[in-house]
């Protein structure tokens, strides 16, 4: 039996984070410069049903039955078995590697789930399609995040830029004009569930004012989508800036991210904002290709511990 290996990209939210949890639209893009990879190899000599997990990045090396029942990887393998109607897998080793920084808004948890679902289902002889991969990954997102909107598992499973509204079929973005983004990490880890819960508490205390801001973010996502499709970079940059101001207002930015946002704008970026849950992690900035070096340098001087340059262009259909 051969080994099966699958990878999944990271992701960045371009517009609409947090508001998307409350039913507003958001725009997200895959980030192929980072990835999670899962490799399943048969354990020929092991007793039936043995599953070994080897995830050196998080120093996890264990037989699956020794993990807590609600451990995301154990839960994931159980979900895949029930999806495929398999009572017992042939013995295997599951190796997980990821270059996606955790708790940084780049979809690390969802990408690991997607890679594992693809590799284990292929090993079992029934590779799952993108819709089922996304649905199973969503179940694990609930363990990681409590109340996820579903945007991370969707953009990562389909690996396409998309316009997403919770509970509705997503729409692929048509990107006929190339877009260049720099994604910069401020180096602070920020667990999504904590920030999402803080926003929820604030929303419960002051629902009207939060609903108003979420609706404004939703409108920004709608206009943003149109400007992406029309290739209007100046308008898109302005919308990113407006989105950032609202995210600051609801207190999901932080001085480290704000410093990088100002640095990018001073160096000539079209727009810049927090990306993901915020209070740490990454920001994203839209630049013209001739400004990549200038803006990257400015971001590094402003404290970025890592920058990713990513280009977006597709013509689906
Ligand atoms: O996983 P992160 O940090 O990119 O956050 C996901 C975006 C949120 O809107 C904050 C949460 C969600 O489930 O959509």
Protein described:
The chain has 317 residues and is an alpha+beta fold. 41% of the residues lie in helices and 24% in strands. The protein contains nine helices and eleven strands. It starts with a strand and ends in a 5-residue tail after the last strand. The site of (3R)-3-hydroxy-3-methyl-5-(phosphonooxy)pentanoic acid has 16 residues, from helix 4 and helix 5.
Task: Write a brief structural summary.
The chain is built from nine helices and eleven strands. With 317 residues, it is of the alpha+beta class. (3R)-3-hydroxy-3-methyl-5-(phosphonooxy)pentanoic acid (PMV) is lined by residues 13, 17-18, 20-21, 105, 107, 145, 148-149, 151-152, 192, 196, 276-277.
| Average pLDDT number | 95
Helix content: 40-55%
Which series of helices and strands comes N to C?
Answer: EEEEHEHHHEEEHHHHEEHE
Poorly predicted ranges: none
Tell me the fraction of residues in β-strands, as a range.
Answer: 15-25%
Number of helices: 9
Bound molecules: (3R)-3-hydroxy-3-methyl-5-(phosphonooxy)pentanoic acid
Give me the Rg, rounded. 20 Å
Distance between the termini: 36 Å
Main sheet properties: 7 strands, mixed
Shape: globular
Secondary structure: number of strands: 11
Structural class: alpha+beta
